[in-house]
Write a structure and sequence with these properties.
36% of the residues lie in helices and 20% in strands. By secondary structure, it is α/β, with parallel strands linked by helices.
Length: 221
């Protein structure tokens, strides 16, 4: 089975997105499930159409990353991926993640390899670039460590002890579980509806989390 986790927070385009996502997944040669991870601060929830391969879970915490980890706990698939519901990620490339997990433990979309591109706007591009460079200082080899479009094998979770605050989950997985991985180019599009959650405050929290991980968990132990 292939599990697709969709973390959501005030996503007005969710029903349409899910319809298109089902269309992509139905073409794969596998059974699948979509897990919609709704945060406990959701206040603009729009009930999506019911579907036998889709369920909603409510997570309790203060970050996107905790919603994703809640999705991991509910996922039944041997292959698991994460995709945002804001139309920033190219869901038509999901087959590359699904098939790539046959060979690699983690498959990650990247805006910063040949063929990749980011149309997220100047502010979000700057935040991603700055903290991508910061992550590399502490050992990341991902070309796009801030990305939220990725897949992993279930077995990788057995090597993880998550301690998320405002980490991007693939970065935390890379640094802690050290999976084999590959990247493929993606074009990340800006929102056509809804409001971005990226901010300078979030960026600073990510920087502190990376430093704390390296200093307290790597350097001292």
């Amino acid at each position: 089975m292939f599990s697709v986790i969709v973390p959501v927070y005030n996503e007005p385009n969710l029903p349409d997105f899910l319809s298109r996502l089902h269309g992509v997944l139905e073409k794969l040669d596998t059974s699948y499930e979509i897990i919609i991870a709704m945060g406990d601060k959701e206040d603009k929830w729009i009930d999506p159409p019911t579907h036998p391969n889709q369920r909603v879970i409510k997570t309790f915490g203060d970050s996107l990353e905790r919603s994703i980890i809640g999705g991991f706990s509910h996922a039944k698939g041997e292959k698991i991926m994460v995709c945002d519901a804001d139309d920033c990620h190219p869901i038509e490339k999901i087959p590359l993640i699904f098939n790539g997990l046959d060979e690699y433990e983690m498959v990650v979309g990247s805006r910063y390899i040949p063929g990749g591109k980011s149309d997220l706007g100047t502010f979000r591009n700057l935040i991603s670039w700055i903290f991508g460079k910061w992550a590399k200082l502490w050992g990341s080899k991902l070309t796009d460590p801030m990305v939220g479009f990725f897949g992993i094998r279930r077995t990788v979770l057995d090597r993880m002890r998550f301690k998320p605050f405002t980490w991007k989950i693939p970065l935390e997985i890379e640094l802690k579980a050290k999976p084999t991985f590959t990247s493929f180019p993606v074009t990340a599009m800006g929102r056509t509806i809804g409001k971005t959650k990226t901010s300078v405050k979030v960026g600073l929290k990510i920087a502190w989390d990376i430093f704390s991980y390296w200093f307290f968990e790597v350097s001292l132990f």
